[in-house]
Each structure stands twice: as C-alpha cells, then as structure tokens.
Design goal:
Length: about 500
C-alpha cells in the first residue's frame, strides 16, 4: 500500500511540473514572464522549493504516460500520421502542420535545433544530392501526395521527349548538365516513339548532326544511312562501292565526306590518301593493287606484271635492294645493275648473268662451252674451270692443246702441237696416227709406235720383233757388214 502511494505522489509531481513548464513556455510566447511553479500538495520535502531533474525522471519510461500523437498531427497522410512521435520531443513540441516525413524527430533533427536537419532519413526514396539537396522538403512532401522515387511524381516530361526512365540520360546534377554528354551513339534511340527523324533532328535545331549540311540528300531520307537503334551507326550499303571494309569501318563519315557531299564522292584511294602515298604516284591512284583496307602493312605486289618475275632468292629480297630511294618506275632489269659487285668474272661474260646462273643462287652455274667454239668433250668436261682459265681469265683463252698440254719428250718434236691429230679428248691412249710415214704402218702386226720406236720417235729398232743374232749371222753370210740401218735396204719391210 505504501509503495502505491509513493508512485502516485511521484506521478502527480511530474505532471504538475510539466504543466508548469508548458504554462511557462506559453507565457514566454505570449510575452509574459513565467512564474516559478510551486510544489504540489503532498510532494516530498526534497522537491520543495527546487526544480525536478527531468533527465532522471524521463529515463523511467514505464513511469511516464505515453502520448498519442494522432490527436495533434494534422495535415499528414493516414499512414504516416499513425507513427508515434518520440516520447521526449512530444512533451514540448507539437507535430508540424506541414506534410512531414515521419514523426520520429531524432532521425533527422538534433537536440540543438530543428533546422537545418542533421541528416537524411535512412529510408528516403531519393538521395538528396545535386539539385535535390537544395530544394525544400515541402517541394516534394505535400499533403495527400504519396512519396515515390519515380521522377514523374514531381517532374513532367517535355513535349515530344523520349519515353522511359529519366535516369537513362539525366542525373540529380540537373537536366541539361547531366545529359550534355549524351549524343550520337550514346543517345537511347530505342526509346523514341516516332520514326520521323526530324522531330529531334530538324536542321534548325540543336540536334542536327550533319557536318555542314547533307547537300546530296533530302531531309526525309535519313533512313537511307541511319537507323533508330541503340547504336545508330551508318548502315548504308557501302559495299556497293567496295570501300566500307577493314579500317574504313572505323572512320567517321566526315573523314571522307568533309563538306557534307555524299553523292559523287571520288572512290580513288588518292582522294583521301594522297599524303600517305610513299611511292609518289609511281603506281597510280589504285592503292588496292597492293594494299587492303585492313591497313598499309602486309602489301602484296605481282611483280610478274613488270616482266621481271621474283623467283628464287629474288623473292626474299627487300624492295629497297633494287629500288633505292623509293624509285620504282624505270628500274633496269639487267643483272649487272644490282650484281656488279658480285661479278667475279669482271664483266668477261657480259651483263647477262642468266647465261650461267639461276635466281636460286650463284652456285650450281652451268655454261655451254660449245658457244666458245671449244666444246668440253671427254676428259675436258671433268676439268675445273681454273685448269684452263687461271687467275679468273676467261676471254682470250687459247684453244690450242699445247696451251695446257706440253709436248712429251717421246715425240722429239716430230709431230707438232696438234694433239688432236693422234689423240682424243677421252684419254691419251689409245692414240692413232694418220700422218705421213715412210715405213708401212702396221708392219707385221705392229699396233703401237713403241713397237718400233721404243724410246723416242727420233729413232727406231727392228730388234723388238726380229732376233738380232740371226739378223747378224744372215747378213755376215752375205758379206753385209753394215746391217744396222734396216730401212736403207728394206724400205717396205720386205726380206728382199
């Protein structure tokens, strides 16, 4: 029983004190000085003549009555007005009459002052940044108007504007500022509700994209090149002129159509690439003879068209090896022009290396020696060139045998220098003699000169075949003491 009386007295004291405080506030607002509240009857002697410490009292929430804010919140939506006002704030502060975001004051306001709010409510549907941060709450929070993050709740789209959400092009920094960089391919063309390009791209308007003017086309012919899509690149069938390939597809229209002229634009490569021609026009205006739209590198050229096919090692040579200083037209095709320093023959065979050599390399050369009047037959065909052509000398080389073959001592100068009179090029032996001979050739089956001329052609001996002893005995019987010179008595080789 005693505890209940104590609680009742405390509640009465708190109520009395709060009422006095409220009256004091009203008097201040009315311009009157407040009077100090007196202690209520039956209050504790400790509270007499002094103010109650509300900080300790208000912390005991169970001991405080809960105020229903629904009775004081005016002009709010039904849903938000039912949210309870923070217990402490409602003791002194009435709910605002203007449309307010919720009724929990501490979420946005601090204890020092109400305005400006210290923070944005956590559940606010729109981030208060950019232009949104500078507007009053009441601009969006109005009576009987639901809160939404949809732009159209507060903003109306201009006439003829694209459909879809505003955030596709715009941001909170402002309509014009946020959409300034959205043009050309970045514009959301799929959101347009019209097929008439001139609704947005009238020649007198800000969205006219032509370089100067599309001189060759009428205003209603945009669709010939452009299409309404997320990426409205040119879709004209450029294949009709065979140029819109490779690197050409990366170009802007104005790089070839600089003045807005489309019909009649030259198709010659030099129309755009005159300054890029490193050949100074030597190959004409058709770069496609060697190059492709994929780039200048990787060029191919049919050298056969020049009458000088690049076969063998010529196919591996750099262009500059033959075409010095970028000179192509009029380049001579004679071998000596490029290979004069390589000519080990010092021009003795003229300027046509192809007489002996092939484009596969200097080695493996072939030469028709028959063209010189001295065919390389027999053993001559196996001889090295230097056996006859010492010191690289070819022109004026003598063709006489004695120039390479000295006369053997066996001949004793009797047969001259014409080896071919007896010998063949295949080998020295067997040799045959068909010249003048005073003694019958082939005497008693003799097949070699050495049968009679055993040591030298300067002399002869019959004793290689005939028995010298018998010859001496026979000639002695006939009283012929001088029988050494057989031919003197037997010129034909007969016995008689």
């Amino acid at each position: 029983m005693g505890r209940k009386r104590t609680v009742a007295r405390v509640r009465l004291a708190v109520a009395t004190t709060l009422l006095a405080a409220l009256v004091a506030v009203l008097l201040v607002l009315a311009g009157h000085a407040p009077a100090r509240a007196s202690s209520p009857p039956g209050a504790s002697s400790q509270a007499a003549g002094s103010e109650i410490d509300l900080r300790s009292v208000l912390d005991d929430r169970e001991a405080l009555p809960r105020i229903d804010s629904r009775a004081t919140a005016t002009g709010q939506s039904a849903a938000l007005s039912q949210q309870p006002v923070a217990d402490r704030c409602a003791r002194c502060h009435l709910s605002p009459t203007a449309y307010h975001y919720g009724l929990r004051c501490g979420q946005c306001h601090s204890a020092s002052r109400f305005l400006p709010p210290k923070a944005m409510p956590p559940a606010h549907p729109v981030q208060l940044v950019g232009r949104h941060a500078a507007i009053e709450c009441s601009a969006c929070h109005k009576p009987a108007k639901a809160i939404s993050s949809v732009c159209s709740t507060c903003h109306s789209a201009p006439k003829g504007h694209l459909t879809g959400t505003c955030s596709t092009c715009h941001g909170p920094q402002g309509w014009a500022d946020s959409a300034a960089g959205i043009s050309g391919p970045a514009a959301p063309h799929l959101l347009t509700t019209t097929d008439d390009c001139l609704v947005c791209h009238a020649p007198a308007g800000p969205n006219w994209p032509a370089p100067a003017s599309h001189k060759s086309y009428k205003l209603n012919q945009c669709q010939l090149c452009h299409r309404s899509a997320a990426n409205p690149k040119v879709t004209v069938q450029h294949q009709a002129v065979g140029l819109f390939q490779g690197r050409h597809t990366e170009l802007a229209c104005v790089q070839c159509h600089s003045t807005g002229q489309f019909v009649g634009t030259t198709q010659a490569c030099t129309g755009c690439h005159q300054a890029d021609d490193r050949h100074d026009g030597q190959f004409g205006p058709d770069c496609a003879q060697c190059h492709t739209p994929n780039g200048w590198g990787g060029a191919t050229f049919d050298h056969d068209q020049t009458g000088f096919a690049l076969t063998g090692v010529h196919g591996n040579a750099a262009c500059t090896s033959c075409h010095a200083n970028g000179q192509y037209n009029g380049t001579p095709s004679q071998c000596v022009v490029c290979h004069q320093a390589d000519d080990r023959h010092d021009g003795q065979f003229g300027s046509d290396c192809a007489q002996c050599h092939t484009p596969n390399g200097w080695s493996g050369a072939t030469f028709d020696h028959g063209q010189t009047g001295f065919a390389l037959t027999g053993a001559h065909g196996n001889a090295a060139c230097t056996r006859c052509h010492a010191n690289g000398q070819y022109n004026g080389t003598p063709s006489q045998c004695v120039a390479c073959h000295s006369e053997p001592g066996y001949h004793a100068g009797r047969l001259g220098t014409d080896c071919a009179a007896c010998h063949q090029t295949g080998s020295w032996f067997p040799a045959s003699y068909g010249g003048l001979h005073t003694f019958p050739l082939g005497h008693e089956g003799a097949s070699s000169c050495r049968t009679c001329h055993s040591d030298s052609l300067a002399g002869y001996s019959c004793y290689g075949c005939h028995n010298q002893g018998k010859i001496a005995e026979k000639h002695t019987d006939h009283d012929i003491p001088d029988y050494g010179n057989c031919v003197a008595c037997h010129p034909n080789g007969d016995d008689d």
